[in-house]
Amino acid sequence: VMAEVAPSQGPGEVIATGQLKEMAQEAVSNVSAIIKKFSDENISEKDIHIQFVQTGEGGVDGDSASITVATAVISALEDIPVRQDMAMTGSLSVRGDVLPVGGVTHKIEAAAKAGLDTVIIPKANEQDVMIEDEYKDQIEIIPVSHISEVLDVALAGEPEKDSLIDRLKNITGSALEQREVGGTSPSPQ
Predict the structure, then answer these.
(1) Long-range own/partner contacts, residues 128-132 (CB < 8 A, 24 or more apart)
(2) Tens digit of pLDDT for each residue in 128-161?
């Protein structure tokens, strides 16, 4: 996934190219909600271009590339590079939570076969991982539950990255606290 941010001629928009199917397009919209919430950049006057490259004949379906899209866009907005020795999969809520995806074992094995060192997966998928023994020593699996954890692992460039992660935790942390304080309503018996 490649992303580029450019000044817009009018109101900013998210422009996704490649064979994006409906659910992937929806994932792109969720990602833009998160970016609007925490980025220092005023993205209302910017176009965010997202390109899915090497997606095969079927294109991109589903939202399992959401954390990848978010990482690419945030990298472009904040001018912080992304590590190139890793893969990631995960759906993303508008609040920044990393949600489970299907086929996680296959995706981990594909990353190992491609020679990558690390793969980020949703913490909720941790119990689903059943990779072959031959891949266990080849790749490090990092389970995450929030976009801030994804960025902490995926972005390179320490001082800039740390500042960004701190900002993100401050903004999303207050949202998490509000959710916890509000509690959950008991289910009817």
Answers:
(1) 128/100, 128/104, 129/104, 129/105, 130/105, 131/105
(2) 999 988 898 999 999 999 988 999 999 987 777 7
